[in-house]
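Q: Here's a chain of 139 amino acids. Please give me its 3D structure as tokens.
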Amino acid sequence: MKYSVPQFIDVEDKIFGPFTFRQFAYLVGGGGICYMLLKLLPTIVAVIPVIIVGGLAASLAFVKVNSKPLINVLDSGFSYMIKKKLYLWKKDETQKVKKKEEIEVKTQTYLPRISESKLHDISWGLDVLTKDTSGTSEK
């Protein structure tokens, strides 16, 4: 029996027309705040806050940074600025010594040359071993 497997599990469902629930919530919230600003403040004074709030709401709804929503990026940025930072510096001499030893080992590597007859003998021996282990050789 065949079962259908979901193909797009990382894509959010479109609930309100072309918008996901999250996008719709950001847009409605930003629109509500803009409406309140326009009703409470004089029109000339309210223009700049309305542009800022509307732009923030639209960018929260639609902008993605490295395929992550903007709200995650802002959250990470604020938590980085607020949290305490601990800077450690530890001088590691063992890495320098290991690198020098690796360089010396690489320069001292010797590769012996194999003559053609010796190479033929080794390949023939490997062929015989593989045929015996696979059970295809005839007796």
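Q: Can you summarize the key feature?
A: The beta strands are 14-16, 19-20, 64-65, 68-69.
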